[in-house]
Specification:
The chain is α/β, with parallel strands linked by helices and 284 residues long. It has eight helices and twelve strands. A six-stranded mixed β-sheet has the order 1-2-3-4-7-8, sandwiched between helices. A four-stranded parallel β-sheet has the order 9-10-11-12, sandwiched between helices. The protein has a two-stranded antiparallel ribbon with strand order 5-6.
Length: 284
Amino acid sequence: KDRTDIVRIIYDNVSNYDGFVVHGTDTMAETAAALTYMLPDFRKPIVLTGSQRSMWVSRSDGANNLYTAVQTATKDFGEVVIAFGNYVLRGTRVKKLNEEGYDAFYTPGVEPLGRLIALSEGIKLADHRIKRGKFIPKIFTDFDTRIFNYDPVSGACIDDILIDVAKSDKIQGILLGGFGAGNVPNKLIPFIKTAKENRKLVFVYTKCNIGSADMGIYDVGASALKAGAKSALDMTPEALGQKLMYALGKANSEKLKGKKKLDFIESIIRTSYKGDINVKKERK
């Protein structure tokens, strides 16, 4: 609901402003991804920022971050970004790295879109950013939030609970953390098979900060693919969760059922959008 309120304000004012600034911190990576999918084809800068310390305490980074964010919103960006510390970062690739340091966010596998040289000199822009452009405003906010994320702990045994999750009508899509290159313990294969039998997609992401769910490399990844899991390639779990809720919502709005619905959702997830995927496909 909070994110819907934000995008409604932006959408209703798209012709009034050249850029937009949104303030927050802890779930900023998820919000950046969600806004990207909620406002498809948006080609003005939407800049998220926040602070590690309150604006009202000594040595706060809040004022500088806000200054940088407003400055970023005037620049040649046509995507959702995060301006924080010394960097401007792609919204669909960002992760929070540090709970204490002032450069708290980073984008694995993607260089920053901008670097703060000095407040007096401004922001040096990178060529791989998405630039401003003409667009027809679109909005989509009917996310289907009935998703489940299981990030396995090696040795943990909750098999019965996971089978219940796979069967539950309260869950419509599943995220599954994979070890290394998307490797899944054999004891989770029945969970994946049950999800498939109940027409639920399971997308596997790598638990590593850098890399991809390249599930064709080892048998423990290939077995999960054979059971029905799908690789999320190198999507971050932050972006994957928001994109899955978006894809489920879009499928509902199209009134799709059965295999057509599953194929539609998979197509959305595995199609790179605004740089959320950087690898082409996994190895077989």
